[in-house]
Structures are given as structure tokens and as C-alpha cells.
Amino acid sequence: MSTPEPLALPDTEAAEAWVKERTSATLTHVRELAERLRTAPPSQALEVLKAWDQLSLELGSLGGLAGLLANVHPVEAVRTACEDTEVEVDRLRTELTQDQALYRVFADLPEEQTAALDPLAARLLEKTLQDFTRAGVDRDDATRSRLTEINERLTELNLEFSRVTRDDVRITTATPEQLDGMPADWLEAHPVNDKGLVEITTDYPDALPARMFVKDPAIRRAVTVAGLERGWPHNDAVLKEMFALRHELATLVGYEDWPAFDAAVKMIGEGSAIPEFIDRIAAAAEGRMKRDLEVLLDRYDRDVPGASAVSAADALYYEELVRQEKYDVDSQVVRTYFDFAKVHQGLLDVTGRLFGLRYEPVSDVVTWHEDVSVFDVYPHDGDERLGRIHLDLHPREGKYKHAAQFDLATGVKGRQLPEGVLVCNFSRGLMEHDHVVTLFHEFGHLIHHVLGGQGEWARFSGVATEWDFVEAPSQMLEEWAWDAEVLQTFATNEAGEPIPADLVARMRAADDFGKGYHARQQMFYAAISYWFHKEQPEDLTKRLQELQAAYSPYPYLDGTHFFANFGHLGGYSSAYYTYMWSLVIAKDLFSAFDRDDLFAPEVAGRYRDLVLARGGEKDAADLVADFLGRPYSFDAYATWLVS
């Protein structure tokens, strides 16, 4: 079986026409495949599934490509064309999964044939039938027509919400004197403008250091508020319509509400289990949160006498002071060990060693921007290319503002090479250690996409597990960015000295400080995600304030509207809880590794082969049990939280 070639991308000038032509050709071919399957299906169940899987591969790959370029391409017309493609892909996907004639092809397969399917093919048939029924294929014509309208409008709203959030970059200005405390390299990269002011954007490399290091509380507050206000007021109406339409869709296909519909295909199973999980984590974190907040407030009170709570605008700054004074960790010293170029190479070295891979740089390839670096992925001791990865790691205008992994191509053995893209916004110089951890986290998704893209079915390729498991492998990989011996292989200062082990130990202790209230803050986000969908409140700001009072360690900042740029309300909808659900599992997965030998080949190989390489071929709970030799447990997380 020959190895497929990677996707050839167009240069900038040809990109818009290329996207439109590829969209037209792919959608036409997918419709032809569907018509053939509808009118002259193969006589054998396995061949029917293969035909549907090929159709799904082509449609899904087009959607992935469009979703990526809509978020990263430097030309606005290309981004717009890709957003149009996303709408077309979602429209056709809805049309196909509501097609009763197509549904009957699968539902009427002879029992003797379906009984003879191997376990993976039988799983594919089960999932395919589930996709049809969740799309409303068994509803009457009027209902299916309304579902089509809802899906099309939801696609448009998701794109609008994402676009507004991405493009609404706000700027705070400050005099050089007001930026006392900022790192020298940051100041050097931000010269004064013609008015003698320094501009601080809401992009991460600008805003995060400002919130951590600027001594002037007015500037910290201005930068924080600017970040919280992105997307407001426009996205208020966008979100309300989105919540209402999701609720209507769920009820039309027989569910109580959107969280119930969404949870039915996740590990958690039921929508009502989400608030139970949120409250369980909140209760587990309560004691630790109070102890850590007391320490933080005590330090805050020295500068703001009589304060009853730490402001969200000041939290990062005072956390940094506590780290310096209580744990002897100065982030400005720490960052001198994390030069971007060294971290970039270190990431490849560490993950290559852990998973038995090597990354070969590819230079003679067209990308969407000169910042993008490309690597082919091979087994450490083999010549068969497993996939291709693209790293787009620095901010620019018109680019996605957060950190995420995007699919460029879905991997299927012998048919299509898996290609994934990391889209992040890191400094080109020195990095905060938090950003190093984020880079390892996102790379975990990339590895999952490539290693899980070696199977025979597109439906189970890559990160195709239940959505509340998706983050677990990435969260576990963060552990390697906290290990002193691992860090010392690439974290060196300007003199070439590796980061001291005792500094890493103090960094760990400082990071442990605050994990109780960080967990509560995550539950605040999860509560927004769930209750906004469950209740569809008329006044989103008022409900935000109530949930913040119930879960967050920080009081509401007057006049802010964080939900308007809470991007997870788009993709994750009511399921932001999944980050913490996955962390519970990640801590359990990591318990199988030897902390004194994180590269032990036996356990790393089992994890790679039994979890990552299987993609969605089994339920996530079964993948975890295969690796651990037992069902997953809350114990490792609970121990970590209170330790």
C-alpha cells in the first residue's frame, strides 16, 4: 500500500480561486457519491460503509481545510471564502444526514450481513445510524426543513461569533513611566508611537505580561477590561440567537434541551450530570481555594488596605508577587530560560523521544504565511511517513487569537495522510513558562491527530473520541513541561546554563499555589457554558454576575461582558466542563508513568499504542481502561488538588 502524498497548498495570490474551485469540485463529487449510494448501493454491508466513509472523508477534509484557513490566512478575501465553504459543508452534511433514502440504505442492511461485520465496522454502522437520527432523519418533512434552517443559521452565527472575537483587537496606551515593571525585551519590542505612548493590544504576548508585571494598577485594569470587552456589544445578540436555536434543534429531535442533546454522545452521558460535576469539583476545591485566597488577599492588603477581595484585574500581578516573595520564583528570571527557538526544538526532541518519532523539516513547500514551519513525521527508526505537521506560532493581524490545533487533512491508512496545524500566539523571543506549558498541551492534540490517523476508517481518525476526553492526552503531556530533567534539555539562559532543578521545584510549588481557586474559576466558565444554554437568560450580563458570585474566586468587574468573547461558547457550547473532566482523567493516566523516568519506553509505548493510536476506535472509557488495566478514577485528581 503506497503512502499518500501531503496536500499541496496554493500561494497567496492563487488562494482565493483555489479555495473556491476545490470547494465546488469536492461538493460536486460528494453529491455524486451520495447519489450513487442512494440509487445503486453496493450489495454488501461492508462496501456500503466504505462508500459512506469515503464520502465523509472528502466532506470532512474540506471542512477542516476551510476551518483552518478561515482562521489563519492573511488575506481577508480568502478567510471569507473559507467561511462560505464552511457554511456549504455544514449545509451538505445536514442535507445528507436528513436524507431518508440514504438512511434506509443503512437501516435496511440485511441482519446476516451486519452480524458478520468486524467490531470496528459494526461500530461505524452504529455511529452512522446515530448521526442520522440525531440529525432528525426520522422526523416529518416540516421538522426536517426547520432543522436545516437552524443548522445553516447556527453555522453562520458560529462563524460570526468567531470572526468578531478574532478581529476585535483592542488597544490600551500607556506612557513608558506607567509601564514600570515590564520586562526589558517586551519594552524593546514595543517602542513609543508618535504621541510618545506605548500600545498594548489584547493579544496574549502583549496583554499577559502587562497584567503580570506592570506596577501601575490603572494600566493593569485597563488592559484587563479591554480583554474582557472584546466582542461587546455585538456578540450579545449573536449568542442569544445561538442559544435559542440550539435549544429548538435539541427539542425537535426529542431531547429536553441542548445540554441533554450535546451530552448524549459524550462520556458524561446526560446533561443533568454536568452541573453535578461542576458542583463536585467546586466543593472539592473550596478548602484549598480559601487557603490560597487568604494568602493572596494578605499580600494585596499591603498595597490596597481594607480590600475584601482581590480584583480580577490585579490577580495575576499579585500571584506573581506571592511567587516571588513566598516561593522565590521571579517570572522575569524564569522567562530568560525559555527562548522561543530553543523551546520549539526542545518540544520536538521531547515528544520524538517519548513517542518514538522523528520530525524532518520540510522547506520546499507552500504555506499560508512565512511564519509557518512544516515537518514530516516518521517512526524514529522507519522511513514510512506517518503525517505532516504545520506550526503557526506567532500573532499577526487577522489570525485566530488563542491556541488550538486545527485539522488540515484527516488521516486514513493508504488513502490520506494526516496533517495537523498548531495555531498559537507566542512571543518570538522569551516565553512565559505558562506559554511553554500551553505549547506542550496543544502539541498533544497534534500528536493525537497524527498517531490516530493511521486506521482504516475516517470516522475514527485522530482526535475522534468523545469530546470530554479530547483534552486528557494534551493535559497529560503538560507534565513533561514541568519536569526539571526534561526542561534542562532545552531550557537554557543566554549563557547556556540549564534551568536549575531547585528553581523548577520552586516553580512547581508556586504553580500549586492557587490551584484551588483556579479550579473554581474553571467551574465558573463551565457554569456559564452550561447555564447559558440551559436557561437562555434574557440578561446575559446579570446571569454572568450571579454565576461569578457563586463560583469564581474574583468579584465581577463592573461594566464588563466576558461572555462576548468566550470563544468556547461557539465550539464547546454547553460542554466547557470537559476541560476539568479531562483533567481528572489526565491525572489518572499520568499515575501510570514513573515520575523518575518519564521516558520509560514500555509505559510510553503502551500509552501511544492503546490510547493515542486508536483514535475513536473504542469508547474513551475503554481506551483508558485498556491502558490503566482498570476503570478511570477521581482519586488521582482529588489527591493532586489537595496536596
UniProtKB/TrEMBL annotation:
Co-factor remark: Binds 1 zinc ion.
Tagged with keyword Transcription regulation: no
Pfam families linked to this entry: Peptidase_M3 (PF01432)
The cofactors named for this UniProt entry are:
Zn(2+)
Signal peptide interval:
none
Please provide, alphabetically and separated by semicolons, the GO molecular function terms listed in this UniProt record.
metal ion binding; metalloendopeptidase activity
Keywords associated with the record? Hydrolase, Metal-binding, Metalloprotease, Protease, Zinc
Indicate the segments forming the Peptidase M3A/M3B catalytic domain, all copies: 215-637
Q: Which CDD domains match?
A: M3A_TOP
A GO BP entry is: peptide metabolic process
What's this protein's family per the entry? Belongs to the peptidase M3 family.
Put simply, this protein is called Peptidase M3
Species for this entry = Nocardioides luteus
